[in-house]
Design brief:
The protein is an alpha/beta fold. It is built from four helices and seven strands. The strands form two sheets. Strands 4-7-6-5 form a four-stranded mixed β-sheet. A three-stranded mixed β-sheet has the order 1-2-3, with helices on one face. The structure holds zinc ion.
């Protein structure tokens, strides 16, 4: 008999295709796991609509749950409530920073949008808040490229929604 725990443990083994230090559970895209007899329903919310990583994630989920014989797997995508960067766990934020990606700062981002000023994203390396936006798009569409004005290192910033 498969349990919800088994499924969550299995999902935690799947890395985010764009940020390999995070798994898809830490990223907050898995909303719900439901099991009725041998029917497993996993509810997902995509991070960014049209994020190409989503298809890949679904394939990985299907592949990794194959280890449970005789289950019927159903993946459901829900768009409401929309995914927000606040669903990323504290632990995951720390991992992002250690990996060299500035974790999302919702407050900063909102203010920046409101006032039209450049947000001062903290450099994941030297922790200084003197960064400059280089490009709205970093290594993937979900990230922006910043450069630290203190240590001059360029870094990816995980954009807020
Ligand atoms: Zn720096």
């Amino acid at each position: 008999m498969i349990s919800e725990d088994d499924v969550w443990k299995c999902l935690e083994q799947i890395p985010d295709p764009e940020i390999p230090v995070l798994n898809i559970v830490e990223l907050g895209v898995i909303r719900k796991v439901q099991i009725t007899n041998n029917h497993v329903t996993i509810t997902l919310t995509p991070t960014y609509s049209g994020c190409p990583a989503m298809k890949h994630m679904e394939q990985e989920i299907q592949r990794s749950l194959k280890m449970f014989k005789g289950i019927h797997l159903k993946l459901e995508t829900v768009y409401f409530p929309p995914w927000t960067t606040s669903w990323i766990s504290v632990e995951a934020r720390n991992k992002l920073q250690a990996y060299g990606i500035a974790p999302p700062e919702e407050e900063t981002e909102r203010k920046a949008a409101l006032w039209g000023v450049e947000s001062k994203i903290q450099c994941p390396r030297c922790k200084q808040q003197q960064s400059k936006l280089i490009s709205q798009f970093g290594s993937t569409a979900c990230k922006a490229l910043y450069q630290c004005q203190s240590c001059m290192e360029p870094f990816d910033y995980f954009k807020c929604l």
